[in-house]
Amino acid sequence: MELQNDPTLLWYIGLYAVVMIAIGIFMSKKISGSEDFVLAGKSLGPFVLMGTLLATWTGSGSISGGETSMAFSYGIWPALFLMLPTLIGIIILYVIAPKIREFGKFTVSGILQAKYGRKSRNLASVIIILAYVGIVSYQMKGFGFILNLTTGMSVELGTLLGGIMIIFLAMVGGLRSVSQTDAISGFLMVGGLIITVPTIIAVAGGWGDIVANVPESHMTATGGLTTIQLLGFLLPSLFLLLGDQNMYQRLASSKGDSSAKKGQIGWLIAMIIISPSISIIAFASRSIFPNIDPGMALMATTLAMPTVIGGILLASAASFIITTGNSYLLSAATNLTYDIYGNYINKEASDKKLLSMTRIFIVALGVFSYLLISYFPTVLSVQMYAYTVYGAGLTPALLAVFFWKRVNAAGGISSMLAGVVTTLTWEVILQKPFEINSVVIAVPVAIIVLIVVTLMTTNGDSRTREPVNA
C-alpha cells in the first residue's frame, strides 16, 4: 500500500492542542508555591496519578522505538517481551512507594544525598539533566516526524510546534497542570489504541494475512536475536523506570499511600492494554507497509484507516509525545533549581524565587533541547545512550537506599561512576562490540562495584553512616 499524507488529520492535532493549552492555563491559576508547582501540592488522587504515570512513561520511545520498532523489525513476540520490564518495574515501585513518600524530596538527587552525601547529589544531578535534555529533544523531533508522515507538514515546523507545546505546558502550571493533561492524555491513549487494534487487523485482511506477509522469523520467540541481544533491549527500560525521577516525583505527589497504590495498580492494568496494542498495530503495519522505516510503523497505520480512527490514533500518539516531553523537562528543571541554584547560587532563596527560577529553567532547558535536535541531530545518537547511563549510573545506588541498609557513601558513589564510565566505554570507545547494548555490561558492573566497595569500606561492626549533608 502507498503512503499518502492526509492534511485533514491536522484538525485532530489542533483540537488536542487547544484542550491541553486550556487546561494548562486553568490549572496554572491554582499554583500557590514551589511545592505546589513541583509536587502538585501532594494532592494527586488515584485516577490522576494513574494517568500521569502512564502518560509520562509512554512517549515517543514507544511509538517510534520500543515495541513499535521491535514488532516491525523482529516480530510480535520480541515486542511483547518488551512489556515485561515495565510490569516488573511497576511492581517494584509499588513496594517502595511508601518509602519514596517518606523521603519527601523534590529530586532523586536529594534522596541520594540523604544516604551518600553531597557528592552523590552533584553527580546524580549532572546525569539526570543530561539524560533528560536528550529525552526531551527526542520527543520534539518525534512530534515533527509524525506530523510530517501523516499530514505532510515539514519535520522542522512540526518539531518547532512540538517544542512550543512541551515548554508551555511544563512552564505554565508545573506538575499541577502537567498531571491533569497527562491524565486526559493517558485515557486518550488507551481508548485510541483499543479502537485501532481491531480496525487495523481488518484493514490488513485479518490475522492470517498479516502472518503470511511477514518473514517467518517474525513469528519466533526471539525474532532472530540472540538471548544476550534480546536482554540488551529489555534491560534499559527496566533500570530507567526503577530510577526515573519522574516516577518518584509523582509518587511523592499523591494524596497518600492509598492513592499511590491504587494509581500504580491502574497504571499496571493500563500498560497490559497499551503495550500489546502498540505491538500488534506495528506488526500489522509490517504486513501493509513492508518498506517503511521501522520507527514509523505505528503512525503509518493512521493513513490506512478511516480518517476518524486515524485521527484519534494520531491525537493519541501526539499525547504520548507531548506529555512525556513536558514531564521530563519539568523534572530536569527541578534539578537545576533545587540541586544547583538552591544549593550553591542562592541558599536563602524564597519560595517565590524558587518557583520563578524553575519556570526560567524550564524555558532554558526546553530551548536547549530544541537547538540540540534542530542543529546538532547527530548528538541524538549519543544522547540515546543516556537511557543506560541513567539506568546503570543511578538505579543500583538508588535502589540500595531502599533495600540495603548496609550500603555506604563509598559504595554508592563508586557504583554511579562505574555505571556511567562502563556505558560510555562500551558504546563510544569500543563501539558496542557484538551488537550488544551496553546495559548488559554496565548494570552488572555497577552492582558488583556497589557491593564490593561497600563491603570493603564498612566498619567491622556493620554499622552504616548516612551522611545527610556531607
TrEMBL record:
Keywords: Membrane, Transmembrane, Transmembrane helix, Transport
InterPro entries named in the record: Na/Glc_symporter_sf, Na/solute_symporter, Sodium:Solute_Symporter
Lineage: superkingdom: Bacteria
Pfam families for the chain: SSF (PF00474)
The keyword tRNA-binding belongs to this UniProt entry's keyword annotation: no
Localisation: Membrane
Main location: membrane
Entry's transmembrane regions: 12-32, 44-63, 75-97, 123-140, 152-175, 187-207, 219-243, 264-284, 296-322, 360-378, 384-404, 411-430, 436-456
Bilayer disposition of the protein: Multi-pass membrane protein
CDD domains recorded: SLC5sbd (cd10322)
Family the UniProt entry places it in: Belongs to the sodium:solute symporter (SSF) (TC 2.A.21) family.
Protein name stated in the entry: Sodium:solute symporter family protein
Species in which this protein is naturally found: Halobacillus amylolyticus
